[in-house]
Amino acid sequence: MPALMPSAPIVYRDATRDELTTAIAWAAAEGWNPGLGDADIFWATDPAGFVCAERDGELIATGSIVSYGRAFGFMGFFIVRPDLRGRGIGRDFWHWRRDTLRARLDAGAAIGMDGVFAMQSFYARGGFTFAHRNLRMAGIGQLAPDDSQLVEASSVPFADVAAFDRRHFGCAREIFLRRWIEPVDGRALIALDAHGAIEGLGVVRRCQEGFKIGPLFAGTPAVGERLFAALSSHAAGHPVVLDTPEINVEALALARRHGLTEVFGCARMHNGPAPRLPWAHIYGVTTFELG
Fold it and tell me: What integer is the mean pLDDT of 48-64?
């Protein structure tokens, strides 16, 4: 790759759809293992939420600044091209992203992010407060008997699914959710109580390597267990990942019972007031990239 002119100005701008594909490829090279359908879903969620830095016409950094109806923002996909790291490019680009996203949100809305542990102090200096760690737990999917009490998410009124998701995510994200519960080579399952009310939601999707489960929301540990077993069964014999909030001790216990071990992690941080979420019912976050 040709050397870049040191004096060439860096331009920050919206990314194109093809450049989001490049960001996905860079994320894969970092070992983040994106889902096969992630790019299409992410773009549909907020086409203005993906940005990049370029110099001399070359892409040198990527990032997301997704707005959920101006009520909540999420930063992710923060990647500087490996050969250009350590030159301050990422620092300046990150601050521009933070400020650009802040301008896309209503006054008082929070910005969330899942940042790698090594960058936590940098994010703190940029105004983000630590909430907890999300741990990537990985193992192999295990075959389980069919659970006739679980139903496909597509069979439940979408308004009910969206309302349940909103309570666990903190704001509405219907555009994202409609596509997320129809995963590429995956399943989206709902647990209903005796009265037909939703008491659990889980999604498993195929990734570049194996499968990821997320979100996994459950009103009780028993419901979380049933949903996880069914989703893991879909991935039987393949690598499977669950990104688990460390503050939910039942979630970590569930992952370990199923042979999953910690392989990676991120610090959940917020700029602004953190959403008040029922973390005891959140067994797996949806995605490190969009929240």
Answer: 96
